[in-house]
Design a protein that fits this description.
Layout (H helix, E strand, L loop, with lengths): L6 H10 L21 E6 L4 E6 L4 E7 L4 E6 L5 E6 L4 E6 L4 E7 L4 E6 L5 E6 L4 E6 L4 E7 L4 E6 L5 E6 L4 E6 L4 E7 L4 E6 L5 E6 L4 E6 L4 E7 L4 E6 L5 E6 L4 E6 L4 E7 L4 E6 L5 E6 L4 E6 L4 E7 L4 E2 L1 E2 L2 E2 L12 E4 L2 E3 L2 E7 L7 E5 L5 E2 L4 E5 L3 E11 L2 E14 L2
Parallel strand pairs: 4-29, 32-38
Antiparallel strand pairs: 1-2, 1-28, 1-30, 2-3, 4-5, 5-6, 6-7, 8-9, 9-10, 10-11, 12-13, 13-14, 14-15, 16-17, 17-18, 18-19, 20-21, 21-22, 22-23, 24-25, 25-26, 26-27, 31-33, 33-36, 34-35, 34-37, 37-38
Length: 419
């Protein structure tokens, strides 16, 4: 393996080659509908994230993050990317609309793998030193639980319904199954030697685990938490991904510099694709037409046509690239300005008349300004107002979000009669 010359990258190789193995990565696709998405590749040797526009297969931005970035997870809306920094013991949070780090959160020692639940409200981070998984509340950006797992936990994947998280424990040769409601380990599944990558199929019925030493993939039935099949693949099996319809699994074989394509119906390898030097991770695009392979030794990402199993493009990235987790996501949601709308009850009655106003605006406003027609105002999203004088009152609401503002006025909306 080619050595990285700067000191920090050398430290990264020391960390990642512990236990006699080289860098490994699980690259799990987040299947998000939308326009052409971006790929976020963590570069352990240069402490950056390369942002690839997969429509044109070019790096369009480079984001500075923490020391030895390893894992990456993209929230379902595509607006935030979470990166584990093994050297600085924290998680960088990237705003994808600006491609800048907006927040950093401390976690357990040497965070490595990372995954996010389908709602985007929980992030799970493995720690290879603490032998734990940190659970992060994404609303408050705080660690709300720490779950003990096996020895040297590497990759992590969350089930499609968000109820379970699966962790590869490299030294324990096992998989920890975490109940995400109670944040406790409810099962441990023994697999082959040095389990590294892990992925859950789209229906949540199967878990696929790569085993580096045994050159194999263990197939786990999630209903019984038992290994039902073992598939022989290349040497140094690392990252693994499943296509959107669950019919194919792709394995990055680090030592043989190729990708094994598995038919999940028969659990047999149907093709082998040569790629770059030391492939450690892999992901499939949301439409299933392309497979992206990260080559740590050649500082590149290769793109495979899923129909022909041929490499069609190469993208150069930073030093010693990794991307442990869901590294392909959708574009950030399109800007949608808020549109003001509201209701009131009652709209007529005798003075004094107490009226409840409810915001019905669209576009997720974050600012509200009510005018009740009698000189009084409110900044609350929903408001209760008392009219003390007889009259017919116009009511207005102005709402705002980051993409603009909008006003709505209803003339003579509230009628107050004599006592």
């Amino acid at each position: 393996m080619r050595r990285v010359t700067n000191n920090e990258a050398s430290r990264g190789h020391t960390l990642l080659k512990a236990l006699g193995i080289t860098i490994l990565a699980l690259l799990i696709l987040v299947n998000i509908a939308g326009a052409e998405p971006y790929a976020y590749i963590t570069n352990a040797g240069s402490n950056t994230v390369s942002v690839i526009d997969i429509a044109i297969n070019k790096v369009t931005s480079t984001v500075n993050v923490g020391d030895l970035p390893c894992g990456v997870a993209i929230n379902p809306g595509g607006k935030k990317v979470y990166v584990t920094n093994a050297g600085s013991n924290n998680v960088s949070i990237i705003d994808t609309t600006k491609n800048k780090v907006t927040s950093t959160l401390d976690v357990e020692s040497e965070p490595f793998g990372i995954a996010i639940d389908p709602t985007g409200t929980r992030v799970y981070v493995t720690s290879i030193v603490s032998n734990t998984v940190s659970v992060i509340n994404t609303i408050t950006n705080t660690v709300i639980a720490t779950v003990p797992v096996g020895s040297y936990p590497q990759a992590i994947a969350v089930s499609p319904d968000g109820t379970r998280a699966y962790v590869t424990n490299m030294v324990s040769n096992s998989i920890s199954v975490i109940d995400t409601i109670t944040n406790t380990v409810t099962a441990t599944v023994n697999v082959d030697n040095y389990p590294s990558g892990i992925v859950v199929n789209p229906t949540g019925t199967k878990v696929y685990v790569t085993n580096m030493v045994n050159k194999s993939v263990s197939v786990i039935d999630t209903a019984t938490n038992t290994v039902t099949s073992i598939v022989a693949v290349g040497s140094g099996a690392n990252g693994i991904a499943v296509n959107p319809d669950g019919t194919k699994a792709y394995v990055a074989n680090e030592y043989t510099n190729n990708v094994s394509v598995i038919d999940t119906a028969t659990n047999k390898v149907t093709a082998t694709v040569n790629v770059g030097f030391q492939p450690i991770g892999i992901a499939v695009t949301p439409d299933g037409t392309k497979v992206y392979v990260v080559n740590s030794g050649s500082n590149s990402v290769f793109i495979i046509d899923a129909a022909t199993n041929k490499v069609t493009a190469r993208v150069n990235v930073g030093e010693s690239p990794m991307a442990l987790g869901q590294f392909i996501g959708s574009l950030p949601a399109k800007s949608v300005p808020s549109i003001a709308a509201f209701s009131a009850y009652p709209t007529f009655g005798k003075a004094p008349l107490t009226v409840r106003f409810d915001d019905k605006s669209t576009g997720s406003p974050n600012s509200w300004s009510w005018r009740f027609g009698d000189g009084k105002t409110s900044k609350s999203q929903n408001s209760v107002h008392k009219y003390t004088k007889v009259g017919r009152y116009n009511v207005s609401l102005k709402v705002k979000n980051a993409d603009g503002s909008n006003d709505k006025t209803v003339s003579k909306y509230i009628t107050v009669k004599n006592k």
